[in-house]
Specification:
Structural class: mainly alpha
Radius of gyration: 17 Å
Mean pLDDT: 88
Low-confidence stretches: 161-171
Strand content: under 5%
Distance between the termini: 39 Å
Largest sheet: none
Number of domains: 1
Helix content: over 70%
Length: 245
């Protein structure tokens, strides 16, 4: 199974990061658990087209794993959102590393992956495209179901919780659900914009990807601000939006 192979690859990388004490382990551990949950959802017939979701799951993860491996070879090599995530202060709380990874992977990688696995013919077929979008949205069912468990996992990983943090825990979990759904809508809109750019040619597509890279990198400053980050994102938004044409 391709997802099983992906999980084995991720586990191998995680083992190395944990041995080295690399803070990149926090996002990868979260992603690995999520990938296992998505694999179980595929096996559980959650999706309309499980073969397509499998291909998409692997393609999407490849963008992150390629960035991680590029970073380990040369920290200047990955796209800017990933440079910001991998270059974060090691003293940053585990959830801070996870949020920076989510920004790079959801806001920057995900629209690109969708365009890679939804070809022009599928975009031109309303019925097929609607099915792809429904499966894209069904991922939220998996992610929302993981929120409480991931919060516990981050605490176990060493996330320091103040009394205020504990009081805000329930609100933060609800905010996370809002953030996931809001960003997924924006991801789909950005994928549609990248598809239009693809039809116009490689140069236009590359220009729009560069805009997406800048937009995702610009989100980092807000993620690094103090205070109740998740609550702020639930109000102001986590996702990014490509400018018109």
């Amino acid at each position: 199974m391709p997802v099983d192979e992906l999980i084995a690859r991720m586990q191998g990388l995680l083992d190395g990061l944990e041995e080295a004490g690399d803070p990149a382990r926090f996002f990868l551990a979260t992603y690995l658990r999520t990938t296992r949950a998505v694999g179980a959802a595929i096996d559980g017939d959650l999706f309309e087209d499980p073969d397509w979701v499998t291909a998409w799951d692997v393609d999407f993860a490849d963008l992150y794993l390629e960035a991680l491996e590029a970073h380990r070879r040369d920290p200047a090599a990955p796209p800017e959102p990933w440079r910001e995530a991998f270059g974060a202060d090691p003293a940053t709380r585990p959830e801070g590393h996870v949020l920076l990874g989510m920004n790079a992977h959801i806001n920057f990688d995900l629209p690109q992956s969708l365009v890679r696995v939804i070809g022009p013919a599928d975009f031109a077929d309303p019925a097929v495209l609607a099915g792809r979008r429904r499966d894209h949205e069904r991922i939220d069912e998996v992610l929302v179901g993981r929120v409480a468990a991931e919060d516990r996992a981050l605490q176990a990983a060493g996330s320091r919780r103040t009394g205020l943090d504990r009081l805000l825990a329930v609100a933060n979990r609800r905010a996370t659900r809002v953030v996931l759904r809001e960003s997924r809508r924006k991801v789909w809109a950005n994928a549609e914009a990248l598809h239009v750019a693809r039809l116009r040619g490689p140069e236009e597509h590359a220009r729009r990807v560069a805009q997406l890279e800048r937009a995702a990198a610009a989100r980092v400053a807000d993620l690094r601000r103090g205070g109740p980050v998740l609550l702020r994102l639930a109000v102001r938004g986590f996702g990014v939006v490509l400018p018109p044409g």
